[in-house]
Structure formats: C-alpha cells, structure tokens
C-alpha cells in the first residue's frame, strides 16, 4: 500500500471516529439537558381568595410574576377566605386575599397571618404606600398585617343624561339651578323637582336579610362630609353612641332625602321593598321619571351592556357639605399565611406600583390600584379612570375612609345597623330618637 492510500484510509477512519465521538457527546448533552428539565420542578406559591369579577385578569398578572421569579402561582377560590384560613390552619397556601380589614384584624389576633411591617415594595416601606387611615385599619398591636390591592368608591351619584336634557336641567340653568359641588343645594334642587311632580331619585335597596346596608353607606357619606374624618373614625370604632348629636344630625339630613314627599320614585317604601340590582334599569328606563341614584361602585355591575358611559349615563362624586374630596369605599387586602422569602417576594410584587397595568389594559376592567404611585394613564376604561381619580384625590388628603359598618364588630355593622334602617324607613321619621336609643342599648 503506498503512502497516499494509507493516509487516505487514516483520514477516513479518523473522521468516522470523530463523528461518532461528536454524536456520542451530543447524545450525552441532550440526555443531560432533558433529564435536568424533567428534574426542574419550580416552586409553587398558592394564593387563596374569593371568586370575583375579572378573576382571569388577576391570573394574567400572577403569571407575569411567576415568569419573573421562575415559579408556579396557583389561585384557589374559596367562598370565605377568612373562615377557610381559620378552619384550615395547615393549608398549603402562602398568601390570601381578604376582602375587608375586619377579617385581617381577626386573623392577626388569632396569629394565623404574619406581620408585613418590614416588607419592602419597590424599595420602599409598605407603611409609605397608603394613606394613614388605610395603614391603621390593617394594623394590630403596632404591626401592619396587610397590604391593599384594589379600592372601590361608595360615594357616588349616578344619573341618566337623556332625562337631564328632557327636563331641561343643566348646571346653572333655569328653571332649576344645579350645583354638584354642594350637597345641601343639590338636595334643595331635587326637592324642588319633587314639588313640581318629578320623583328624581331611584332608590331601590331591598337585599333580603341584608336590606339596610345601602342606607349605612348613605349615612357614612353624610357623617364624613358633614363632620370630617375624626368623627367618622369615632363612629366606625363605636367610640360615640348612635344617639350622639352628630350622628342624630346626620340622620336628620338623611331624613330629608328619604321622606320628603315625592322625592323617591314610588315612595320611601320602595327603598326596602324593591330589589337594588334593578336600580340601573329603572334609572335608564325612559318610561320612569327618576334619573338619579345614590349608589356605590357596585351600581355599574348591573348596567345593561347596551348603555354607554358619558352618552347614556354619568357619575359624580357625592357633593360636599363641609369636607370636600371625601370618599367612603371598600377594598381588598392581601396577607401572608406562610412566612418565607419566596412568599414575601410574591406579595411584594403584587403590591408593586406596576401590578395591575395589564389588568387595566382591558376595556372592561374595573381595577383601581390602591398604590398611590400607580400610573393611572394605563387605565383605558374611562369610567374606571374617573373612579380612580375620585379615590386617589381623597387618598392624597387622607379623606378616603373604609366603609364604617365593615370596620365595626359584625354584630353591629352587618346586622343591627341594617335592621335599624329597615325599621326606620318602615316606621317613619318620628321613630328616629326611639330607634337610636334602642340601638345604643344593643351596642
């Protein structure tokens, strides 16, 4: 065999040998990667909370966090998160959404949730994210036990635009001079309409065993705008009696709204006899003369889809009596049920100023971030944008107050007060003093 043939053979067998080695090592690398992929099981964070409108948008936000942290996040909806935590102290969940601060205080007292006082959110202390009021009502024995995700305003008046035009009602025009800036003047205007045969207010409020809860909202609006946050806080903590002159005076103001002749569509009895979910349909029905509704954020859930905001209906903040830019509202808290570093990272991201941007990009989103650094220009729904502005203008002045009846002990705020209003509307204004004295005895 000559030299060239020999070299050619060596090249041939050498290349085949190298190819086999390359293939062998490629297979080894592939198997290693494949097995490591199988072996990689990301940590899972379980969040419990209620079933609610727009839950799918929450999951979009949680999936973003999961991808950033290379983990899994699972949301388990339960009927009552507070009760679930109490009944299942060994549950695998790490975080919970609690829809009221009374529940936060209850869980903190039972030592079923952990303090968030040292939590950093966007490199800032959680104590700097919210107004003093919101921070104080989720604190227990000096520690903060919850952050705030969403807020919703109660202090709203909805109106039918076409009926305004039909009755030739414009701000500052004749025959009716309207002002949305002063509640007493506003009420005088609606009473004048009643005197002229138009029942301006749609006020259906029947809610089975819960009838009366909407009237607690009306009462809270009056207390806050008439006497300010200090008196409001005393009332929410039941540090003043129901028969206190300031509470009595607030109810006397409300008496003019409820019992003035022809003021309420179908009379004051409709407040306790007609179901509240029908309010938007009644207000927007051209065959009915009422065109105003003193209702919270919940009102928009029942507006038929064929009506358009700012074309068919509008909303304004409840006008002031003495204190302006006030808002009574509700919101969602988020708490830590398992104290570890990963759970704290997740809850910090949920409370971040960026959380909710994707949620807010949906046209039908109702998301109102509680974080005062949230960019409201991310909100594309005009009604939600306007509600956000109302809420955050109040937060800046620390004049956003949580629904007092939900801060009170539940036996009072979610039972006795409801019954008080049901009896008051049924028995009429002459029963007020007696019913307040009876309420004091029960409290």
Question: Could you characterize what this model shows?
Answer:
- By secondary structure, the protein is α/β, with parallel strands linked by helices.
- It has 2 domains: 44-153 and 330-402, Periplasmic binding protein-like II (D-Maltodextrin-Binding Protein, domain 2, 3-Layer(aba) Sandwich); 156-325 and 409-442, Periplasmic binding protein-like II (D-Maltodextrin-Binding Protein, domain 2).
- The chain is 46% helix and 13% strand.
- It is built from 17 helices and 13 strands.
- The protein has helices at 3-39, 55-69, 81-87, 101-109, 132-136, 161-166, 183-195, 213-236, 245-259, 269-273, 279-284, 341-350, 357-360, 382-396, 404-407, 410-427, 432-442; strands spanning 44-49, 72-77, 95-98, 120-121, 124-125, 139-140, 143-144, 147-153, 156-160, 292-294, 313-317, 327-336, 400-402.
- The strands form 4 sheets. Strands 1, 2, 3, 8, 12 and 13 form a 6-stranded mixed beta sheet that branches. Strands 10-9-11 form a 3-stranded antiparallel beta sheet.
- The longest helix is centred in the first third of the chain and has 37 residues, at 3-39.
- The chain is globular and about 70 Å long.
Short recap of the structure:
With 443 residues, the protein is of the alpha/beta class.
At the fourth level of CATH, the homologous superfamily of the largest domain is: Periplasmic binding protein-like II
Total tally of structural domains: 2
How much beta, percentage-wise? 5-15%
The CATH topology label of the largest domain is D-Maltodextrin-Binding Protein, domain 2
Number-wise, the strands total 13
Helix content: 40-55%
């Amino acid at each position: 065999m000559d030299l060239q043939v020999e070299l050619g053979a060596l090249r041939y067998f050498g290349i085949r040998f190298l190819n086999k080695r390359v293939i062998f090592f490629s297979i080894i690398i592939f198997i290693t990667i494949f097995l490591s992929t199988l072996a990689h099981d990301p940590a899972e964070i379980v969040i419990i909370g209620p079933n609610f409108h727009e839950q799918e948008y929450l999951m979009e936000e949680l999936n973003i966090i999961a991808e950033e942290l290379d983990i899994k996040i699972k949301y388990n909806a339960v009927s009552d998160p507070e009760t679930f935590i109490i009944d299942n102290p060994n549950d695998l969940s790490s975080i919970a959404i609690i829809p009221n601060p009374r529940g936060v205080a209850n869980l903190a007292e039972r030592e079923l949730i952990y303090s968030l006082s040292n939590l950093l959110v966007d490199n800032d202390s959680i104590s700097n994210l919210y107004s003093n009021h919101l921070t104080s009502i989720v604190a227990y024995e000096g520690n903060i036990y919850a952050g705030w995700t969403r807020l919703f305003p109660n202090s709203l008046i909805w109106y039918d635009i076409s009926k305004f035009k039909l009755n030739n009602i414009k701000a500052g025009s004749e025959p009716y001079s309207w002002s949305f800036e002063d509640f007493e003047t506003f009420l005088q205007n609606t009473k004048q309409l009643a005197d002229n045969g138009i029942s301006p207010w749609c006020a259906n409020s029947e809610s089975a065993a819960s009838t009366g809860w909407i009237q607690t909202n009306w009462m809270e609006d009056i207390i806050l705008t008439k006497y300010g946050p200090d008196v409001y806080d005393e009332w929410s903590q039941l540090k003043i009696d129901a028969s206190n002159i300031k509470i009595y005076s607030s109810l006397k103001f409300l008496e003019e709204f409820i019992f003035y002749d022809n003021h309420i569509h179908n009379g004051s009895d409709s407040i306790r006899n007609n179901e509240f979910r029908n309010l938007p349909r009644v207000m927007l029905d051209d065959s009915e003369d009422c065109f105003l509704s003193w209702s919270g954020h919940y009102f928009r859930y029942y507006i038929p889809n064929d009506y358009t905001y700012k074309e068919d209906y509008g909303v304004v903040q409840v006008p002031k009596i003495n204190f302006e830019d006030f808002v009574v509202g509700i919101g969602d808290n988020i708490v830590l049920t398992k104290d570890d570093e990963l759970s704290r990272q997740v809850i910090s991201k949920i409370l971040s100023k960026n959380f909710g941007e994707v949620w807010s990009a949906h046209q039908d989103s109702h998301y109102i971030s509680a974080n005062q650094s949230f960019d409201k220009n991310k909100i594309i729904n005009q009604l939600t944008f306007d509600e956000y502005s109302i809420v955050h203008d109040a937060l800046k002045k620390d004049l956003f107050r949580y629904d007092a009846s939900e801060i009170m002990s539940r036996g009072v705020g979610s039972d006795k007060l409801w019954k008080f209003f049901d009896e008051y509307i049924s028995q009429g204004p002459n029963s007020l003093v007696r019913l307040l004295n009876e309420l004091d005895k029960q409290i």
